[in-house]
Each structure stands twice: as C-alpha cells, then as structure tokens.
Design goal:
Shape: elongated
Family: Belongs to the SPCS3 family.
Order of helices and strands: EEEEEE
Distance between the termini: 20 Å
Keywords: Endoplasmic reticulum, Membrane, Signal-anchor, Transmembrane, Transmembrane helix
Membrane topology: Single-pass type II membrane protein
Structural class: mainly beta
Subcellular location: Endoplasmic reticulum membrane
Strand content: over 45%
Protein name: Signal peptidase complex subunit 3
Number of helices: 0
Number of strands: 6
Largest sheet: 4 strands, antiparallel
Length: 105
C-alpha cells in the first residue's frame, strides 16, 4: 500500500495530534457500511503531517464467511483531529473502484 498525504493544513494552534487510518469499506445486504481497518497512525505534529509511505497492511483484510468474493470495495483514508481543547473533528477521502477476486484463500 502506498499512501501520500499532506494534512498540514489540519494543524492549528489548537491541534494536539491527528489519528489517521485506512479502511476497506463495502456494502452487504445486511449492512450498508462495513469497515475493515487496514492501517493506522498518529501524527503528533505538523512537520510529520506531509508524508509518503509504502507499507503492508498493518491489520489483515479478513473475509469472514466469504462475503467479499468478487465484491467491490472502497479504500477510505479517515482522519480525526484531536484538539487541545474542544470538540474532535473528523473527515475522510474515499477512493473507489476496487474489487476483490472471485477466488481467494
């Protein structure tokens, strides 16, 4: 997985840190939103908020019950701005167009 992001604009005088994670998101007949967290990190300061990393999944993308075979899914980068004081703010960037193979182990 290659992740490039510039989240420096999220840091203000009131930002303590950012929590970011990448999730695979998909629909099933039972649930309109299912999420599997694949990677996460804490960004402690503005100077670390512009980055490029190449990494393997931190967490396994597990298909319990073979529901994902041949299914479409999105990869979504989520971020949570943790302030020094006040309410936490969250947003995301959705990257669509991914599909799992019909057969996998």
């Amino acid at each position: 997985m290659n992740i490039t992001a510039d989240l420096q604009s999220l840091f203000t005088w009131n930002t303590k840190q950012l929590f970011i994670f990448v999730a695979a998101e998909y629909e099933t007949p039972r649930n309109s939103l299912n999420q599997v967290s694949l990677w996460d990190a804490i960004i402690p300061a503005k100077e670390h908020a512009k980055f490029w990393i190449q990494t393997a999944n931190k967490y396994r993308f597990i298909d319990q019950g073979s529901n994902l075979r041949g299914k479409k899914f999105n990869l979504t980068l989520h971020w949570h701005v943790m302030p020094k004081t006040g309410r936490m703010f969250a947003d995301k960037l959705v990257m669509s167009g991914f599909r799992l193979p019909d057969e996998h182990r």
